[in-house]
Amino acid sequence: MTSSRNFLGIPVEGDITAGATRVEQKPIEELRPIMQAVLTDPTIVEFGWRQCTPYFNDGDPCEFSAYGLWVRTDKDREVEDEYEIEIGHRHPSLGNRPKTWDSEAKDWSYKPYEGPDESRYDRCLALSRAIEGGAFEHVLLEAFGDHASITVRRDGIEVDFYEHD
User: Fold this and answer.
1) 140-152 tens-digit pLDDT
2) Crossing angle, helix 137-144 and helix 28-39, to 10 degrees?
3) Is residue 66 part of a domain?
């Protein structure tokens, strides 16, 4: 695309290839109440996510991200793979709000909640959106590093190396 831009008042001509469209970053203080709402729920035992920069991304730029927020409640059994208790899938004790991709709006469209406690699910969903939405990537990278699997409990946070392909 040819540009009719200027940089510091100097005209810029030529083809400009857009870079990554990163989400505006938010300070850690904005993450605190979202995380605290989940941590203070007496039925939630622990939660966590993975964060990394992929080694290879099919030709796309390899960019850091956090994803896969999972939540374990006092009703959930131990699982081999946290995917079984991720928010956004049919969670065994929290329920779900099924979603479909709206290609016109370029966003998810949510169906009515299915489960035992909608407000609890909504608090967990808000945390999932905060962690996975990209607005706290700088905070998460600085706090826990790259290639990390994070587990949060009331009495502490555990960080393990996350091995991925």
Assistant:
1) 999 999 999 999 9
2) 70
3) yes
Q: Report yes or no on 115 lying in a domain.
A: yes
- Are the CB atoms for 34 and 126 separated by under 8 Å? yes
Kindly report, residue by residue over 22-33, the tens digit of the pLDDT.
789 999 999 999
Residues of the chain with pLDDT under 70: 1-4, 18-21, 57, 165
**11 assigned to some structural domain:** no
Residue 40, token pair as written in the block: 């203070």
Host domain of residue 144: 24-161
CB 91 within 8 A of CB 97: no
Q: How many domains does the chain have?
A: 1
Residue 64 identity (one-letter amino acid): F
Domain-embedded: residue 9: no
At residue 1, the pLDDT reads 47
The pLDDT value recorded for residue 57 is 67
pTM of structure:
0.83
